[in-house]
Design brief:
Layout (H helix, E strand, L loop, with lengths): L1 H6 L4 H22 L10 H32 L8 H23 L3 H11 L14 H18 L3 H19 L16 H7 L16 H6 L25 H6 L10 H8 L7
The structure holds zinc ion.
Zinc ion (ZN) binds next to helix 5.
């Protein structure tokens, strides 16, 4: 796909959008043919909800990309002279390192967890979940993944290749499709690993890397094992229902809004959340 994009001189945003639609269609079809858990299939109601959140994310992502690109073109001109393959490998490792730590912090820090909650709130996992995240989540994920690569001065071809691989992985690891990549999941992320990340059991919920499991193996958060019994959050009663999208979008801002008396304590001063 990266080669086609280069040969046909498509813009990066057109290529990524086309790749997103293509992968969503293929994986949604695969989920119907060979579902891993039939009860996790998206209903039309799920598709409408996740589609709406996905559109919101797409718009936020496009704005963040445009701002980042303008910033870098203005202040950091010039491209790396490394061979393209080296740029792609180095870029992938750097992008995944930033994404790994941001994701891990999202599960340990109170406010970032409030942002990340929207992605983990659903109690079923399928390809539509891949695009179900808070727009703030989309912005900080973009920043940590892309900004270091722009600062390194990677060539646009390398950036497109890395972005296409990352997008493919984000969609594939959420897919509710039966099957396994076996020991290859030491090298690349898989749905088997990522289902454990969404487990409601704390001891299973590692695997913060999506495209690569490398940093999980380096920092001791790599998990393998049987599929989780349940996915979602540890204590659903503490949070708005997965269908209250407005409340979940507002969740990160609730600590910032004025509140009074005992209600304020109950609302603002809860302990850190780990799932
Ligand atoms: Zn997560």
């Amino acid at each position: 796909m990266a080669t086609i994009t280069q040969r046909l001189q498509w813009s990066a945003s057109s290529a990524l959008f086309g790749w997103l639609v293509f992968n969503l269609a293929v994986l949604a079809q695969a989920e119907r043919w060979r579902p891993f858990r039939p009860e996790w299939q998206a209903t039309p109601r799920h598709v409408r909800r996740d589609g709406a959140i996905g559109m919101l994310n797409l718009a936020t992502d496009a704005a963040a990309s445009a701002a980042l690109t303008a910033l870098v073109v203005a202040y950091l001109p010039g491209h790396s002279t490394w061979p393209l393959a080296v740029q792609i490998v180095v870029g992938l490792l750097v992008a995944e390192f930033g994404a790994y730590w941001m994701h891990r912090w999202s599960h340990s820090g109170q406010w970032l967890w409030r942002v990340h909650l929207l992605h983990h709130r659903p109690d079923r996992l399928n390809v539509a979940n891949a695009i179900t995240a808070h727009p703030i989540n989309a912005v900080y994920d973009k920043l940590v993944r892309v900004l270091p690569l722009l600062v390194l001065g990677l060539a646009p071809e390398a950036m497109v290749g890395i972005a296409l691989f990352g997008l493919t992985q984000t969609l594939a690891v959420h897919a509710n499709v039966a099957g396994s990549i076996g020991p290859l999941d030491r090298l690349v992320g898989s749905a088997e690993l990522h289902r454990l990340h969404h487990s409601t059991r704390a001891e299973e919920a590692g695997n913060y890397g999506t495209a690569l499991p490398l940093w999980d193996q380096v920092f001791g958060t790599y998990r393998r094992g049987d599929a989780p019994v349940r996915v979602g959050v540890f204590d659903p009663s503490r949070y708005p229902s997965e269908w209250r999208v407005g409340a979940l979008l507002a969740w990160p801002f609730r600590t910032l809004l004025p509140c009074r008396g005992i209600a304020c304590l109950a609302r603002c001063c809860r302990g850190p959340h780990l799932a």
